[in-house]
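Pinned message: reference record for aspartate transaminase
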Amino acid sequence: MRLSNRISGIVGGGSDGWGVFYKARRMIAEGIPVTELTIGEHDIRTDPVILEAMHKAAMGGHTGYAMVPGTDRLRDAVASRIQARTGVPTTRDNIIITPGGQSALFASHHSVCDEGDTALFIDPYYATYPGSLRGVGAKAVPIKARAERHFQPDAADIAAKANGARSLLINSPNNPTGVVYSRETLEGIAGVCKDHDLWLISDEVYDTQVWQGEHISPRSLPDMAERTLVIGSMSKSHAMTGSRCGWICGSEAAIQKLIDLATSTTYGVAGFVQDAALFALNLGEAHEEKVAAPFRRRRALTLEALAGQNAVRAVPADGAMYVMLDIRATGMSGEEFALALLDQHRIAVMPGESFGAAAAGHIRVAMTIDNTRYVEALKTLISFANEKAK
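Predicted structure (tokens):
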């Protein structure tokens, strides 16, 4: 029996660039110790007080169908959080709760793209972006953010591909690069969206992990609130990756249609999970800073370890739990370097090519293990790169 073209073409054919990660996991399964600096999973787990709130909600009976848009209390809390951070008036009618940020990403594109529409996204990109766009039937078109611009997207490059497109997907703070988009960059992006009548889908799941500069939500820029859909999540800010609780913030009209979509697809998020998310949000910014603090420290340790040598250079790591390292001085591709590092030193990093052509010759390092082991692995990586550069 034949499957649909849409689902058969989600990965776009060929390798997805994650061979190093899968090889590392096979080695671990065979009992070979590997230092993993690959995926964005906290080295702490969800705070026990949040889990206790989840347990209490479940035992209290909030295990039946929850309201499809999300509980009123959680939507109110998310709206208040967004309004406080951006200054844009926001109410529960601007919010739908989703089963995580990935679901929000998929639903957002469903709401703005018809079959065959062009959906733009920035390269380097989070690994699921192209598949999500293809999964809604859109034509996924990457726009390279150049290494010489520190991976800040250029409005002119976006405009060159914007004619006839329906949407543009951006992510700041950025995975995989760790770059925080500047006000100038975002104003340029907003200008292209208005000039070409594009929907802007802004993935802001790392908004609590900003080490330098400021996070600016493009929804807060002039005349952008009605054409912007913002994706948020509890995963990174509260170490609740497995709980699958996120949201979309947009115009009332867009959210109402997204509620219709959720009614026919996910049918909402478990009530006890939403209660735990509400409890977590009410812990305030101090808890979010506590979750983010290890990555802030490791970012500083990274810059310290890289000082005084030229074989490995850091892309400005201003946010998120990753650093993107330029290893082109070794003469190796990101994939060649990562495979050799894994084979010779049992350290697993992600090749830049896993996240698009723009990051060729780079590697992404997830700052997700304890400080001591992280610094040891980083020093080994730098020594290995210096050997290859010679």
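Pinned by admin. Summary line: The radius of gyration is 21 Å.
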